[in-house]
UniProtKB/TrEMBL annotation:
InterPro entries: DUF3492, PelF-like
Name of the molecule in the record: GT4 family glycosyltransferase PelF
CDD domains referenced in this protein's UniProt entry, alphabetically: GT4-like
Gene: pelF
Domain named DUF3492: residues: 158-347
Listed PANTHER family: GLYCOSYLTRANSFERASE (PTHR12526), PELF (PTHR12526:SF608)
Length: 565
């Protein structure tokens, strides 16, 4: 844990709501961080504590936001913070902890692929029929399939809702108890004990012998070690009347530990679907060796390397555990709510709360626009693969051919993935677009939006991007890939909403030709452009205001705090 920055609660003081924030506010800029800032500022009567979870401290040199006065505590935890033992002492390891860990691993590995309870787990599957036995990639990670087919299989085989939650709770209880009561001891057991070595080698022999043991060992060690960092964090985090986690993943695992160890409500808000986004990243990750041989061809995951499957299933397991603990489980639109249920969330706990923006902040920007439609396309977002910046760059080649003099601005930080950013710069040069595509880095959106003719999103994954709403409020139509609820934002979510008209265009993912054509059509037809501008302004002012969103979260917090004194 890094100490010293931000306010601190004194011993005995209690926060109202502790936000568990993985890789976001207040050290990383972006849409989710902006949303967190909105929530805190919009609810001054709530005393917030912030727990930031990052990869390593060298990437969080400064606060990106000025903390509002109702933030009463900030602490940081880093996944790279592993014990640096000067002298490793031989230890046998706690037998009971390892037995319970085996049972939990077996259960999680069985999700979606098994019908009979693992021998090491005594709970038994409620109402489970005779199904085929699981095929394992490893002891911890069962052989996978596509994201969709795995979830489909789990619906077909596993009990849902309270039955499934009860079974998972039974397997989780002793593991959580051990990790929260003695996090340091459990961590050293995992890293240095004979029982841990035996568990890893047994599972390698039973399910992964055809693959490199060295790769297997370090894969298991790398994915599990941060869980003990989270257990240590759970030990130190000050008291809170409720916890609110903004993703599943490691933060979700921490939320699950806190919920179960302290019997305090856990709220989950997912902007995107964490497991889906990690899967996209893992399939593109270069740090997983290219010689990673495909795992078993099961359930549609054929052709995907064994170790990539292990990581994908690991994050799915973290999601399962988070869903089992959280109530309510919030998403931003019906599509993601359905995805959460598909991935194991109890439907009765799920709800949709759309985001909103501060209209008063952006409406004055309309008066700053010059006459006519600026020949400038803007992509406002981080320069990372999930934003598919390369498709935007290729789009600009199409636009520049049709409308010479048009510029494409990429407005966002580049430090998160320097290698990808370098590839984007190289692509601009390679396509001869120097001077046409400009990298502006992080900028205030208020300075950029009045200068744009179109706001363009080429992302391959989004939920409900705030930048679309902000652009609407500032009078800028949008061309977007068909991700998340962008179609609802641009075309309308209901019959009444659709009657307002379209506020831009929706195109296929990773289709620079279609994106370029849609942009050119709007830029060349001012009548259509102004109609889109009017539709965007009307829609955001009617359905997506900050006041509406704040009222919804005030009710969520009142419900959680009311249930906990």
């Amino acid at each position: 844990m890094k100490t010293g920055r931000g306010p601190k609660l004194r011993p005995g003081e209690v926060a109202d709501v502790t936000l568990l924030l993985e890789g976001t506010y207040p050290f990383v800029s972006g849409g989710v961080s902006s949303w967190v800032h909105q929530i805190i500022r919009g609810l001054p009567e709530i005393r917030f504590s912030l727990v930031f979870i990052g990869g390593s401290p060298d990437k969080t040199e400064k606060l990106r936001y000025e903390l509002p006065p109702n933030v009463v505590h900030l602490e940081e935890h880093y996944l790279s913070d592993v014990p640096k033992e000067q002298r490793v002492v031989a230890r046998r390891g706690d037998e009971a902890f390892h037995q319970h860990a085996r049972a939990l691993h077996d259960m999680l590995a069985s999700v979606g692929t098994v019908a009979t309870p693992p021998a090491s787990w005594s709970g038994g599957w409620p109402s489970m029929g005779q199904q085929r036995a699981p095929r394992r990639v490893s002891g911890f990670v069962a052989s996978g399939s596509t994201f969709e087919s795995l979830a489909q299989a789990s619906r077909e085989v596993l009990p849902q809702g309270p039955a499934r939650g009860g079974a998972l709770a039974e397997a989780l209880t002793p593991v959580v108890s051990a990790m929260t009561k003695n996090p340091h001891g459990c961590e050293r057991d995992f890293l240095f004990s004979e029982r841990s070595w035996e568990m890893i080698t047994e599972r390698y022999e039973s399910g992964a012998r055809e693959h490199s043991f060295l790769e297997y060992f370090w894969c298991v060690r790398s994915m599990h070690t941060p869980l003990f960092v989270m257990a240590r964090a759970a030990e130190s985090i000050p008291p809170s009347r409720a916890f609110h986690v903004i993703s599943t993943g490691f933060a979700g695992f921490l939320g699950m530990l806190l919920n179960r160890a302290r019997n305090v409500p856990l709220i989950l808000t997912e902007h995107g679907i964490y497991t889906k986004e990690r899967r996209i990243e893992l399939l593109q990750a270069s740090w997983i060796k290219d010689e990673d041989l495909p795992g078993e061809s099961f359930g549609g995951m054929s052709g995907i390397g064994h170790f990539r499957q292990m990581w994908i299933r690991f994050f799915e397991a973290l999601g399962t555990m988070t869903y089992a603990a959280a109530n309510p489980i919030i998403s931003l639109y019906e599509g993601n709510r359905a995805r959460q249920v598909q991935d194991g969330a109890d439907r009765s706990r799920t709800r949709v709360l759309v985001n909103g923006i501060d209209i008063a902040r952006f409406a004055p920007l309309r008066a700053k626009r010059t006459q006519g439609v600026p020949r400038v396309l803007g992509l406002i977002g981080r320069v990372v693969p999930i934003k598919d910046i390369k498709t935007f760059i290729r789009t600009m080649r199409v636009v520049a051919q049709e409308l010479p003099g048009t510029e494409g601005w990429i407005v966002g930080p580049e430090e998160e993935d320097p290698n990808y950013a370098a590839e984007c710069h190289d692509l601009v040069k390679g396509l001869g677009l120097t001077g046409v595509v400009k990298f502006l880095g992080f900028q205030k959106v208020e300075d950029i939006l009045p200068k744009l003719g179109l706001n363009v999103l080429t992302s391959i994954s989004e939920a409900q991007p705030l930048v679309v709403l902000e652009a609407f409020a500032a009078g800028v139509p949008c061309v977007s890939s068909d991700v998340g609820c962008c179609r609802e934002l641009i075309e309308g979510a209901s019959e009444q909403d659709r009657a307002i008209g379209t506020a831009g265009s929706i195109v296929k993912i990773a289709d620079p030709e279609a994106t370029g054509r849609a942009a050119v059509e709007l830029l060349k037809d001012e009548r259509a452009w102004y109609a889109a501008q009017k539709a965007g302004i009307t829609r955001v002012e009617r359905y997506y205001t900050q006041a509406q969103m704040i009222d919804r979260y005030r009710a969520v917090y009142q419900g959680a705090l009311g249930s906990n004194g």
